[in-house]
Amino acid sequence: MAPEHTDLSRKRFMVCIDEVQQNFVFGEQFKGRYARTLTLSDGSTRTIELTPMMRNGMPVVEFKDTGGVTYMGLNGTTTNGRLMIQIRDFDLPEAEWQRYSTGHPDFVPAGFTQGIEILNDDTTSMEFVTTVLIEHLGLDRPESLRKMLEIHTRGGAVFATPTFEDAERIAAQITEAAGKGGYPLVCRAVSLVPAP
């Protein structure tokens, strides 16, 4: 079945842009094309351009990052060096939003309400991720190895926590450890519970 051909320049999207050390954009809406120049924590600048389009018969978002070009899904997350970019189709029906409440809906186990999300990248060592899972989430070594491989092969994983405050604390600890180790590991608190 061919995807529905639609004028993507008229659709509304929502974008979030994060660096390991800071959030640049959260939930900003755009139509047609989105561009922003960011100053990273090390003082360097990156220009981000996002353009929804049809490519090879599929709806995608063209992602330009200071000269480099890649493509991502309309409801997806990608990491590019130290940045994490998330795109959401703002006009999805409310029921569909629940599937996309975290960066990767296929990571979400049944009954998950809040916790942390860890995304794969091309720099962070597998041993570091395994150690983080043992030290910060209390997993034993065999389970931490299994979850590390899940992050590596599926692109990420979520881990439930008793409260969102616990998730924020653990995500901050993991992010701090990654920064000290020189790794761009993306770890953040996520929740499927709507804000009051």
Features:
single chain; 196 residues; alpha+beta; mini-chromosome maintenance (MCM) complex, domain 2; Ribosomal Protein L30, Chain: A; 2 domains; 4-stranded antiparallel beta sheet; 4 helices; 26% helix; globular
Give the helices and strands, then pairings.
Layout: E1 12-19, E2 22-31, E3 34-39, E4 45-55, E5 58-65, E6 68-72, E7 76-80, E8 83-89, H1 94-99, E9 114-119, H2 126-137, H3 141-154, E10 156-160, H4 164-181, E11 186-191
Helix pairs in contact: 2-3, 2-4
Notes on the protein architecture:
The protein is an alpha+beta fold and 196 residues long. The protein is built from 4 helices and 11 strands; from the N terminus they run E-E-E-E-E-E-E-E-H-E-H-H-E-H-E. A 4-stranded antiparallel beta sheet has the order 2-1-8-7, with no helix packed on it. It is globular. The chain folds into 2 domains: 84 residues, mini-chromosome maintenance (MCM) complex, domain 2; 80 residues, Ribosomal Protein L30, Chain: A (2-Layer Sandwich). Strand 7 and strand 8 form a beta hairpin. 26% of the residues lie in helices and 39% in strands.
